[in-house]
Specification:
The chain is an alpha/beta fold. It folds into 2 domains: 2-74 and 397-435, Urease, subunit C, domain 1 (Roll), CATH 2.30.40.10; 77-389, TIM Barrel (Alpha-Beta Barrel), CATH 3.20.20.140. The protein is 33% helix and 20% strand. The chain is built from 15 helices and 23 strands. Strand 18 (229-233), helix 6 and strand 19 (249-251) form a beta-alpha-beta unit. The structure holds zinc ion. Zinc ion binds at residues 81, 83, 116-117, 348. Zinc ion binds next to loops.
Length: 438
């Protein structure tokens, strides 16, 4: 028997994740239906890892039931921009790799993550083993882009993980086709070209970047291979190029105010935006109380928290710059959401200012601080993320049976996504504490 805050159940065998899928009835909670934007008082029945019914006990249901009266149920959260390598802060880092990151993410209620740059064969090998048999790699489901498509010497080539470097349209087509053989979940393309005026205004000479024809060829090759493309952008001109080229998504929000014509363009093309507010948010250094939250303490080493505590804020150009840019980014978020541009949550975890698992909760809070509703924020980390990858990640019949039982309503306060009492992955109750044992 295993108990958390008065909820008890038998843990199947040795715990963590015992089978690929299970059946369980969750009785008495309020369902947070992010697709419809409704709170529904109904029981939820998961059979063989998928949501089978909402409401009445299905007559042929064979599975245990868990009384979760007075709680809230949300779909499991997903982080659609991570690098499953490490947690790093200022002068401190913790090498983790995809195995530990998958576990820590699941502990934090993040049941799926999309890795957008890693050592290609290594991350695909991990993903494939996990996909074939989740028992071998318990934790959040890993999705991966593999290597990024980038200009020789450009952004994306500075890491130990080799990029697929391209300088002509022909190379881009060849590289994307070759990558497609390994079935990446998305193709990640770096498109961060600056205009001559923007170049003149930067301190450092910019890295090389691919030209428009090469970029367009990469996007087209991804689409022809049936793969979504996710484009790393730096400026609004890059966003415009990506939308016009037919890219599925752009990631990062430029720090300058969004031009109205770009909002209209994105709304027309339906290009997904993965804003990664968390990685541009200095709160871990400006608000030390965040370092005391129970999720933070469970998910980070003392050295990581110490390095944030010791960061010298006074006179920090980085903090001032990020805070100023965040005002623009919040305004951009309001405009994009008002225009109906699809938003998908991603944190860029693996970089300084982020923590795997924890930062997704911050991302949702930042969206609400920007002016989005808690419903919009939750949709970005559930159903919208599912749409990007072709999965059903809501609370509808047939959707994946991975849900979180929360102790308080995330609609009343989005910060309540951190009040996780139970994580269910494909119908199996996850032994959260065991995930952090190793
Ligand atoms: Zn990234």
């Amino acid at each position: 028997m295993h108990c958390v805050v008065g909820l008890c159940w038998s843990v199947w065998g040795s715990g963590v994740v015992l089978a690929q899928s299970g059946s369980i009835g969750l009785v008495g909670a309020t369902l947070v239906d992010v697709e419809k934007g409704e709170l529904v008082r109904a029981d939820l029945w998961i059979r063989d890892g998928k949501i089978a019914a909402i409401g009445e006990h299905p007559p042929d249901f064979e599975g245990s039931t868990l009384d979760v009266s007075g709680r809230w149920i949300v779909p499991g959260l997903r982080d659609m921009h991570v690098h499953a390598v490490m947690n790093q802060a200022f002068g401190a880092q913790e090498m983790l790799g995809p195995g530990k990151i998958a576990k820590r993410s699941l502990f934090a209620g993040v049941v799926g993550v999309l890795d957008l740059l890693n050592t290609e064969n290594f991350i695909f090998g991990f993903r494939n083993r996990q996909r074939e048999n989740p028992l071998t790699s318990p934790g959040a489901e890993i999705f991966a882009a593999g290597a990024v498509i980038a200009a020789p010497g450009g952004h994306g080539t500075e890491y130990p993980a080799p990029a697929r470097e391209v300088s002509r349209a022909k190379d881009a087509r060849r590289q994307v086709r070759d990558l497609a053989e390994k079935r990446p979940d998305v193709v990640k393309i770096i498109h961060d070209r600056l205009t001559p005026e923007q170049q003149a205004a930067t301190f450092r000479p910019p890295r090389p970047s691919i030209d428009e024809a090469t970029f367009a060829a990469a996007v087209k090759a991804a689409s022809e291979a049936g793969l979504p493309s996710v484009v790393h952008v730096r400026t609004w001109e890059n966003v415009r190029d990506a939308a016009r080229a037919g890219a599925t998504a752009v990631t990062h929000l430029p720090s300058t105010p969004v031009p109205p014509e770009i909002v209209d363009l994105l709304a027309t093309t339906g290009t997904v935006v993965i804003p990664t507010l968390a990685v541009a948010d200095p709160s871990l250094v400006t608000r030390p109380e965040l370092l005391e939250s129970s999720l933070m303490v469970r998910l980070t080493s003392p050295a990581i928290r110490e390095s944030y505590r010791n960061f010298e804020i006074d006179g920090s150009r980085m903090v001032d710059g990020l805070e100023r840019a965040m005002k623009n980014r919040f305004e951009t978020m309001r405009k994009l959401s008002r225009a109906g541009v699809p938003l998908v949550a991603g944190t860029d975890a693996g970089n300084v200012l982020t923590v795997h698992g924890y930062s997704l909760h911050r991302e949702l809070t930042l969206m609400v601080e920007a002016g989005l509703s808690p419903w919009q924020a939750l949709a970005s980390a559930t159903v919208n993320a599912g749409e990007l990858l072709g999965r059903g990640w809501g609370l509808e019949s047939g959707d994946e049976g991975s849900v979180l039982v929360l102790g308080a309503s995330p609609i009343e306060d989005i910060g309540n996504t951190e009040t996780i009492e139970v994580v269910i992955q494909r119908g199996i109750v996850v032994d959260r504490d065991r995930l952090l044992d190793s």
